[in-house]
Amino acid sequence: MSAATIPAPIEDAHDDHDAHTTTTGISNEKMAMWLFLGTECLLFGGLISTYLLYKNKPGSNPDLAGSPVKPSDIFDIPFTSATSFVLLASSLTMVFAVTEAMRGNQQKMRLWLVATAGLGALFLGGQVYEFTAFVKEGMGFTSNVASSAFFTLTGFHGAHVTIGILMLLVTAGLSWRGRLPASKAESVEIVGLYWHFVDVVWILIFTVVYLMK
Amino acid sequence: MTDVLERNDQIAEADHDAHDDHHPSNATYWKVGLFLAVVTALEIVAYEMIEGPLATAALLIMMVVKFIVVVGMFMHLRFDNKLLRNLFLIGIFLASTCYLGAFAAMGHFEDSGTNVIRDVPADQPMPPQPTAPAPIIKESKGH
Does pLDDT of A24 surpass 50? Predict the structure, then answer.
């Protein structure tokens, strides 16, 4: 083997080797994603807490002028329940994508990834529809403190779903171009962790914001 | 070059096979998905049928169950290294402590009587504002 042909594969080999020989036994990428998700708990915790503090205050305080319409007055629970089922289903398709990635079945993995992205897009479409309906009902982002807290919380979650969809499509695209070999299957698992976290946050939002009176 | 790549893939496959040993089968995932769907349906039933603190308690319990199932099964935290579980739990613990403290500091758990943090709902009349006590007029001596 000539010296000129050696460097690239050896570097690849070292990358994979490093990924499995950390002192913790966990790859740095996976550890970083879990750390990131831990910090995301603080972000969404703050947003949920803010909503809980202000959800019953629209228009009742003369110092805080605004529309008296509370978010909970105009929630469409059947519609939101349907979108919640869609997001839950996307978590199921995501685990199938991870399973196929572990098995090295790239084609099925891509199918499940695209299905997950599609379900995520459907959820996002539902959220856009819901926001539009709320604005038509007279509850905009700046209508009162409760609506601001509500739109900030659910908007941040929607932004996370959007980023997740982009990650899923990029992963599927990389696989389609042959740049996601079996040795990189953990990348799919890491994208899956992010996606499941987005689902977990919605589980909290759906109960605490929409269902708890 | 090819040998190195093949060896890498073999190592990766061996690792993934070992990893697969801890992972549930697709049938289990279907069951978990069905379970989550049923719990979500029960949440909606609880929202429609039950009122008061019982509804809140039921909804919170079901939320925690769904949270644990998704994190444990779908995110594989149940089968993964305990260090990862601890990292995530630290985040949850910090968030819970920090925001419960903020709630307490802002009087969320008590009715302070102010209309800034814990004010009355919009459909109820505002409580009467406290009136200043009548001034005490001291009688001067000699009259």
Answer: yes
